[in-house]
Q: What sequence folds into this?
């Protein structure tokens, strides 16, 4: 599958950003879509420091096929530099939640995809997965299962350890929450390296559930998390490079 | 609006869907586990509906939810009533500039934080959490909002532990709960 990406013209609003390297300069690409909804590929050239100028290499007509709600969602996500540590451009979804229409559109896009697909479980990863998962679960009539950091869940749990940059962490799920044969989605706000999503999928598969898809608002494709999902499909709304 | 019979039926289902776990997180505590409620789509929907029916059309522009279980109940309510959702978080989780409110624990203190600029003076807000015990966390959340001149209309929780008198700690702020756990 060849996916085109649409890249919007952007110049940084604050002078401090011009000192960042290319890699950290903000570009907000449009949502990569399936083959049935191709978007235009734009080649970008850097004309002057701190801004990009874009030239069209194909017609813009395909862009109209992209869901118009995506743009509103994308522009509501705030990027906070150097959080939690220097060099990280943190994707802050709290500003999206301050816009009722954009938040509703976010949920609607997921619900439209998953309604009527016999999904019985929406598993959300603590804590921002708790914000997006439950509204999706409610709308599609599925159970919501919180996947939590250690020692938060009060009942008997199963645990899955996963690797961090330095050290390990652990994700837990209540025994009995999910049954063999359940068809599940895993929801989080963002996929980076894919380590947490991978642990989440493992938890569900260990109890005999079928993970149908992982769904995130944001993907950081440079971190190749998608490759870490053992072939499980990933559906996202917004990419950030 | 639902008749009283329908209301009672919904409450009964919600109440029976909550699991009590003894001695968690420490001996003597009967922990009210709402995760089992979330496994019953009808009961979860009823929970949200009961809050939405109360708050829709009341010009509430902010639903503030307390990490982490307030994140489960707050957003569906916010979406249904057309309000913004504002997460109130443990320290060092929110990436932008924050205001903090410290509060007392049984031993020591804790802190919750809210993003600067999330709410504006004059907005009408709800504070949501799964449960009110002593009321310390809810109180801190109310303080955060009132410090930026937000009008906290009501606190709303699924469960109240009345013996811990959290309601009294909220002072003049009304509290609405679905289930009272003796």
A:
């Amino acid at each position: 599958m060849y996916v085109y990406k649409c890249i919007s013209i952007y110049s940084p609003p604050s002078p401090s950003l011009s000192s960042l390297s290319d890699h950290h300069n903000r570009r907000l690409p449009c949502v990569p879509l399936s083959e049935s909804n191709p978007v235009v590929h734009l080649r970008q050239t850097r004309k002057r420091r701190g801004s990009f100028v874009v030239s069209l290499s194909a017609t813009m007509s395909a862009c109209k096929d992209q869901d118009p709600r995506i743009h509103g969602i994308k522009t509501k996500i705030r990027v906070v530099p150097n959080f939690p540590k220097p060099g990280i451009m943190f994707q802050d979804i709290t500003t999206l939640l301050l816009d009722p229409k954009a938040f509703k559109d976010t949920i609607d896009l997921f619900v439209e995809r998953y309604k009527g697909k016999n999904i019985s479980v929406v598993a959300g990863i603590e804590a921002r997965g708790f914000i997006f998962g439950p509204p999706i679960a409610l709308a599609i009539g599925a159970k919501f299962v919180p996947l939590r950091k250690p020692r938060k869940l009060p009942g008997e749990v199963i645990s899955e350890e996963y690797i961090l940059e330095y050290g390990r962490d652990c994700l837990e799920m209540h025994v009995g929450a999910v049954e063999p044969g359940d068809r599940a989605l895993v929801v989080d706000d963002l996929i980076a390296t894919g380590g947490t999503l991978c642990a989440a999928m493992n938890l569900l598969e260990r109890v005999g559930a079928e993970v149908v898809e992982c769904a995130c608002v944001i993907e950081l494709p440079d971190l190749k998390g998608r490759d870490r999902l053992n072939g499980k499909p990933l559906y996202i709304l917004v990419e950030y490079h | 609006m639902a008749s009283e019979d329908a209301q009672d039926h919904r409450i009964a289902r919600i109440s029976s869907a909550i699991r009590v776990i003894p001695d968690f997180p420490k001996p003597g505590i009967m922990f009210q586990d709402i995760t089992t409620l979330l496994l019953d789509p009808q009961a979860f929907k009823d929970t949200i509906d009961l809050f939405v029916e109360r708050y829709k059309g009341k010009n509430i522009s902010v639903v503030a939810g307390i990490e982490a279980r307030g994140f489960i109940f707050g957003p569906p309510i916010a979406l249904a009533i057309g309000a913004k959702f504002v997460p109130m978080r443990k320290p060092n989780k929110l990436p932008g500039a924050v205001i903090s409110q410290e509060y007392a624990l049984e031993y020591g203190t804790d802190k919750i934080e809210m993003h600067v600029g999330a709410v504006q003076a004059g907005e009408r807000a709800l504070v949501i959490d799964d449960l009110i015990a002593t009321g310390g966390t809810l109180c801190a959340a109310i303080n955060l909002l009132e410090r930026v001149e937000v009008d906290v209309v009501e606190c709303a929780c699924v469960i109240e532990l009345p013996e811990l008198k959290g309601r009294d700690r909220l002072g003049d702020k009304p509290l609405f709960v679905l289930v009272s756990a003796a």
About this structure: The mean pLDDT of chain B is 96.
